[in-house]
Design brief:
The complex is a heterodimer of chains A (293) and B (729). Chain A has 293 residues and is mainly β. Chain A has helices at residues 5-12, 202-216, 250-253, 283-289; strands spanning 33-39, 46-52, 68-73, 79-81, 83-88, 94-100, 109-115, 121-127, 133-136, 146-152, 157-171, 175-184, 189-192, 195-201, 226-237, 265-279. In chain A, the strands form three sheets. In chain A, strands 5-6-2-1-16-15-11-12 form an eight-stranded mixed β-sheet, covered by helices on one side. Chain A has a four-stranded antiparallel β-sheet with strand order 4-3-7-8, with no helix packed on it. The radius of gyration of chain A is 28 Å and the shape is elongated. In chain B, the strands form nine sheets. Chain B has a 22-stranded antiparallel beta barrel. Chains A and B meet through helix 1, strand 1, strand 2, strand 6 and helix 3 of A and strand 37 and strand 38 of B.
Chain lengths: 293, 729
């Protein structure tokens, strides 16, 4: 075979062609790992998935990962080394999950470090929100059916905030029926000095409930809709646990760097806990909103 | 107007009628038709002239109110005769670009070196500036910024969706069956609808109605048989051609590389001269392609890509005696199936099926010609997309569209022609028609020619490719969802639109030198491209985008005696602007500007040939700047953390870490091909032998790069070849 560098050079001169036909399709990175996990006082075991960042796309093998996983409570200085478990996913692929059989503490900060054999570390600092209290306050003067709900405590973020209304009503021809409806409330929370305030608008929610029932079936209006209870629920989350637009869309979050709090690596490790609080508004308040007791 | 030896209709023949104080001229149309209207009764002389034929002259006596049909059979001249023969005064080549249009003849095709004796339209297309191919494998052409799915390729009016074979030298159109090919790189008239970028309109020859002819050819690349002849002399003829790839059986015996490519094509055309004023033809074409584009590895069976085209259609042409109009009816059915994956069970498949009815009426006047018509098309699309790292995604749709057009050809004085046209196209996405005004203009005088074209074009169907792979060859055909109020898609009702503008100039010295230059601009709105994602998967999820392509071509054709030379250079810059909602989150910008993977900035072709002592020598060198591709930082995994969960139970997937889309450029492409050919007459047969060498200096041109598996496949290495062809008549 003839390899005529000279001919190539002459013909391609001035075109910036060069005669190099090599290609380097992966830039590569010194960042060793990608981490995904949740730290929570409500979990008796803390878990973090570790993906090695590699130069080729392949399914991981069922073999040990060359990584040293350490976890430090920055308040006490206590450090533990986590163990690796191989998790086989429904599609047959393998992931490495590191775990430690203890609950996290409210308000504590933890330092997570994962080092490779060369000592290069991926790390993330995770702060668990402090304990929170729910305080249902009386309606304000301007609107007799808007109930301020205070969340007191060191909670940087409220996620997945929703209210579940339990109610019953009389269905035409079929008698009494008990149902519930979940109303997203993500837009209604505002940060205040000692936490958050959520403006629960009972009158507006009553109309939402009424529209929901009417869209499903015929309702006898005379007995009305009886309110049986309200539960407010949310995820008290660390500051970084904040998806773009408030939505957990995997098509958006999959892009590296999006909702990413890991240093010298990629991924996200969040901290938080679930909160739920139920109450039944006073009859006068429920009636003012449109419900019947 | 026909060729007396074959019965083949001749187009572009000059016809003049003189007498009664008038002298009127015209040229024959694609079916050899010509027409003069409103001639007074009296005596005339009718003359016809065409390069390579004896001059025809005859007298006409026209009675009042008479409609006269004059059928002319021009005698071709094969040897020097002492009589009046029409000869070319300039360059006996080629395709002069006129506002984006090049008309190609079989003789033009045969000038480009190919690995076998018979030429193929695909080889010539890659010598045209602005035409970017994926190389000598893959079968994809990008024309002036347009993608393969935006090109309309038609054979005798029938759509052929993926007409280029997996080995890029070959298409479904061997030069033996081609009468002419009109290649519109943009600015095409209103009779063409439903495509954004370009049109390749191929008309096949009619079979010889006077005598039998045929040929057989063999080379390490391909074996070919061709036959034609009268079924009923003078009235009914058949033209048939069959080719099959022989690489895997012959070429691999003497070169190191694997060439796992299989393809074949079968063409048949039945032509019937029903009467002196009507004819009927039926055409059938089937192509099969398959091959592995990756090198085999120990642990992985390489994916096979395959596709099959099948088209069938009929055409009836009729000249009513009482009106100066030619009426034409075409009915055709086209189908493409393609797939990629393991040969027995491809993981990604897509198909598109199309039934088309076209009715056209053509009026030929003294200074104004006009075509008016309507076409009706129904399309069925289906795709099933699976593969590594993804679930299977199904999509099916049925479409119907209807278009009406009017195309005028107006002579402005002696030197200029204006071709305004308008198309009203109805698509499923909305009730109101899409109006598509178009305009072409040509001015010629003393060897100078100025041409221009502009127009608006729409396209409803979308061909999606996975742009993250370099030189991807699988296309999933899909459609735009209608804006019916129920669709949640941002793409709903946004039909793709392109605006073209072309200006060109050429000068012919008359002494064997012609220079031409052409500039173009295309703007694409409402483009739909595959959604960008870090998941290593292919999807029909689409994102809106806009695009623009601008550039220019310069070209020199020269001929001195038996030597000809063509040098052309094309500069093109294409940019897309994606409008995916998540781009703001990812990059901090509302839109993402990028060079799409077919943005070849520079392209240079040198084509030269000569006849030396009975040998025809052809040399072709081509250079193309490297194409953009997306270079990854690395690969990791992703898990959605959206609640207080046990992450061990959260489904995790593999992920590609990209910096930005299309942030790198592949190496440039260049190659030298050479062929030497000589013919010998043996009785009534002609033997042609050809020696050729492809990729003479064995350049490792990249063809395919899977950015997920990092598999690289190069184009063909240095391959010598010897081909033989025997033809009889």
């Amino acid at each position: 075979m003839i390899r005529s560098t000279f001919l190539c050079a002459v013909l391609a001169a001035g075109m910036g062609a060069g005669c190099d036909s090599e290609i380097d399709p992966v830039i590569g990175t010194e960042q060793p790992f990608t981490l995904y996990g949740v730290v929570s006082p409500q979990l008796d075991t803390q878990r973090v998935i570790v993906f090695p960042i590699e130069g080729q796309l392949r399914q991981l093998e069922a073999e040990p990962l060359d990584a040293l996983f350490s976890w430090t409570d920055t308040a006490t200085g206590a450090t533990s080394t986590w163990q690796d478990s191989l998790i086989r996913q429904p599609d047959g692929s393998i992931v490495h999950m590191y775990w430690w059989p203890e609950a996290a503490d409210f308000g504590r900060t933890y330092d997570v470090r994962v080092a490779n054999a060369e000592g290069v570390e991926t790390h993330v600092t995770v702060r668990v929100p402090g304990v929170s209290e729910i305080d249902i306050q009386p309606p304000g003067l301007t609107s007799s059916t808007v109930v301020p709900v205070r969340v007191r405590g060191d909670v940087p973020n409220l996620l997945k905030l929703e209210l579940e209304y339990g109610f019953d009503y009389t269905q035409s021809g079929l008698g009494e029926k008990l149902e519930s409806l979940i109303i997203p409330y993500g837009e209604q929370a505002s940060p205040v000095a000692d936490g958050w305030v959520i403006q629960v608008n009972l009158a507006r929610d009553y109309r939402t409930v009424l529209d929901f029932i009417r869209s499903q079936r015929a309702i006898e209006l005379a007995p009305g809709i009886q309110l049986r209870g309200i539960q407010i629920r949310f995820l008290a989350a660390s500051a970084e646990w904040s998806p773009p637009g408030g939505e957990f869309d995997p098509e958006i979050l999959v892009q590296p760097g999006t909702m990413d709090n890991v240093e010298n690596g990629f991924g996200f490790v969040g901290a938080g806990y679930r909160v739920a609080h139920s109450w039944l508004p006073a009859d006068s308040l429920a009636n003012a909103a449109g419900f019947r007791q | 107007m026909t060729d007396a030896s074959t019965g083949q209709a001749l187009d572009l023949v000059n016809v003049v009628v003189e007498g009664m104080g008038v002298s009127e001229g015209t040229t024959t149309r694609s079916d050899g038709l010509y027409q003069f209207t409103r001639l007074e009764a009296g005596a005339y002389v009718l003359r016809a002239s065409f390069i390579g034929y004896r001059l025809f002259s005859d007298s006409l006596d026209l009675a009042p109110g008479q409609v006269l049909t004059a059928t002319i059979a021009l005698q071709p001249v094969e040897t020097e005769l002492d009589e009046l023969v029409v000869e070319s005064a300039g360059i006996a080549s080629v395709a002069v670009p006129v506002a984006g249009l090049q008309t190609i003849r079989a003789a033009d095709i045969d000038r480009v070196p190919t690995p076998d004796v018979s030429g193929d339209l695909a080889s010539l297309l890659t010598t045209i500036p602005g035409v970017v191919s994926t190389g000598d494998q893959g079968g994809q052409l990008f024309i002036r910024g347009g993608e393969p799915s935006q090109n309309m390729v038609m054979l005798d009016g029938m759509l052929v969706y993926q007409p280029f074979h997996i080995l890029g030298f070959y298409s479904a159109f061997p030069s033996d069956i081609v009468n002419r090919a009109d290649i519109y790189a943009g600015g095409f008239g209103a009779k063409f609808g439903g495509r954004l970028s370009s049109v390749i309109d191929i008309r096949s020859r009619d079979g010889n109605t006077r005598s039998f002819a045929g040929s057989g050819a063999i080379s390490p690349f391909i074996g070919a048989l061709q036959f034609e002849g009268p079924l009923i002399p003078g009235r009914v003829s058949l033209l048939a051609s069959y080719r099959t790839a022989l690489l895997d059986r012959i070429a691999t015996q003497y070169i190191d590389d694997r060439l796992p490519f299989e393809f074949d094509d079968l063409f048949a055309k039945l032509y019937m001269k029903v009467s002196s004023t009507s004819n009927l033809s039926a055409t059938y074409l089937k192509t099969n392609d398959s091959g592995t584009l990756e090198d085999a590895r120990d642990d992985v069976v390489p994916d096979e890509v395959s596709w099959t085209n099948e088209v069938i259609g009929g055409r009836y042409l009729f000249l009513p005696r009482n009106v100066p109009v030619a009426a034409e009816l075409r009915i055709s059915h086209s189908r493409l199936e393609n797939g990629i994956g393991p040969a027995a069970a491809p993981v990604r498949t897509s198909s598109i099926e199309d039934t088309h009815i076209l009715l056209t009426a053509s009026f030929v006047g003294a200074r104004v010609n006009a075509d008016a018509g309507m076409d009706l098309r129904t399309i069925s699309l289906a795709s099933e997309l699976g593969g590594l790292y993804q679930n299977v995604e199904f999509r099916n749709s049925r479409l119907g569209n209807w278009g009406n057009f009017l195309e005028m050809d107006i002579e402005l004085g002696e030197h200029a022609r204006l071709q305004p046209s308008l198309r009203a196209q109805f698509y499923k996405v909305r009730f109101q028609p899409y109006l598509e005004p178009r305009l072409r203009f040509v001015w010629e005088r003393g060897g100078h020619q100025i041409s221009a074209a502009t127009g608006i074009h729409h396209q409803e169907i979308v061909g999606l490719t996975d742009r993250r792979d370099a030189a991807n060859v699988f296309t999933a055909w899909t459609s735009i969802p209608p804006a019916d109020g129920r669709s949640q898609s941002v793409d709903a009702g946004r039909i793709q639109k392109a605006t073209h503008a072309i200006v060109g100039y050429s000068i012919d010295s008359g002494r064997g030198l012609r220079l031409s230059a052409e500039g173009f601009y295309k703007y694409y709105a409402n483009l739909l491209v595959a959604e960008w994602t870090a998941y290593p998967r292919f999807t029909t999820r689409m994102q809106p985008a806009s695009g623009r392509s601008a550039g220019f071509d310069v070209r020199m054709d020269a001929q001195r005696g038996p030597i000809y030379l063509q040098i052309n250079y094309g500069y093109s810059a294409t940019r897309y602007r994606a409008e995916q909602a998540s781009i703001l989150v990812w990059y901090g910008e509302e839109t993402l500007d990028f060079r799409p993977p077919h943005d070849r900035r520079h392209q240079l072709n040198l084509l030269t040939g000569a006849e030396v002592r009975g040998f025809d020598v052809s040399v072709h060198w081509t250079y193309g700047a490297g194409l953009p591709y997306s270079r990854a930082i690395g690969f990791d995994g992703f898990a959605l953390i959206d609640d207080i969960v046990n992450v061990g139970e959260v489904p995790a997937s593999r992920r590609v870490i990209y910096e930005r889309p299309y942030n790198a450029q592949l190496p440039g492409y260049h190659r030298l091909d050479v062929s030497v050919e000589r013919s010998f007459d043996i009785g009534r047969s002609r033997l042609t032998a050809q020696a050729s060498a492809l990729n003479v200096y064995d350049r490792a041109n990249i063809f395919y790069l899977d950015v997920f598996t990092l598999q690289r496949v190069d184009q063909l290495p240095f391959i010598p070849s010897l081909g033989l062809k025997v033809a009889f008549q």
